[in-house]
Amino acid sequence: MTHSTSPTLSRRTLLKGATLSIGAAALLRETLKPLRVRAQGGDLPAGTVHTFSKGGVTFHTYVSPSQAVNVTSHIVEFDDQLLLVDATFIPPTAMEVAGTIAATGKPVGMAVLSHEHPDHWSAADVFEGVRFSTLPAIREAVIAEAAAGDGQAPANVVEGADIAIGMTEMSGVPVEFRHYENTEAPHIIATVFPEQQVAIVQDLVYNGVFFAPGVDRANWIATLESLRDDPACETLLVGHGLPTTRGDLDTAIAYIKVMDEAMNTAASPDDAAASIKAAFPGYGGDFLLSLIPEYWTR
């Protein structure tokens, strides 16, 4: 496998990095041990891996550098196998995830694609021999999005299995796959570990990074409100930014309310973006604000 340099991303040329929320800072102090992984050539900085163990399970969160909007991939390490969630955006970051997988010395027993947005799947073909399970609707959207960009969806997404929503086990550990509709994306799969009180919620929550505008912001808020008292959401592994704690559900709800107000009242997409930046001045990922015109309906 050759090392790739970071491609020219045009509108995918991504900007500022994430900052620490209060919940993420507390979690880092208490449990996480960040490790900077090796950059895979070119000018792209290395991502980081944040690892903690809880209830006999080890969780590794890879956070891409700011140029790739701090998009994440999660490796859940059981006694004898791994669960991989999402593939990241570009080959250099996916290769860093693959290196973290190799360092465990364990096979990937299952891989999951959480939703259709390309920053989570477009580098999936780096993971040779690994097929991503997902919902048929997510797979169909990936195929359509790839075709719209004159490309092909990764074969290991197209050929992956249909995921079964509900409770299952991996290596004797209960794992729940949940399906949330019409939030940040039309469909999102959350991977929940009730005994460990850890939930991989992906783009239901961003941490220190500007959010994409979403499909139905009122429903998105209601979904997050429903998780506030969920005991499985003590620790949140998110789609952009560092792992955090349940308190960032309130932060995310507040953000979406501000974003919804800006989208409904601002005179233009640029004005909406300016309002959001003013309300959350420490956030990174300005590229994601450039998506607002695609969601503008007035």
In short:
The protein is α+β, with helices and mostly antiparallel strands. It has helices spanning 22-30, 91-104, 136-148, 155-158, 217-227, 248-265, 269-279, 292-295; strands spanning 33-36, 48-54, 57-63, 72-77, 82-85, 108-112, 132-133, 166-170, 173-181, 187-193, 198-206, 235-240, 244-245. Strand 9 and strand 10 (187-193) form a beta hairpin.
Structure characterization notes:
The strands form two sheets. This protein has a seven-stranded mixed sheet. It has a six-stranded mixed sheet with strand order 8-9-10-11-12-13. It has helices at residues 22-30, 91-104, 136-148, 155-158, 217-227, 248-265, 269-279, 292-295; strands at residues 33-36, 48-54, 57-63, 72-77, 82-85, 108-112, 132-133, 166-170, 173-181, 187-193, 198-206, 235-240, 244-245. Helix 5 runs antiparallel to helix 6. The protein has eight helices and 13 strands. It has one domain (10-295): Metallo-beta-lactamase, Chain A. The chain has 298 residues and is of the alpha+beta class. Helices cover 28% and strands 24% of the residues.
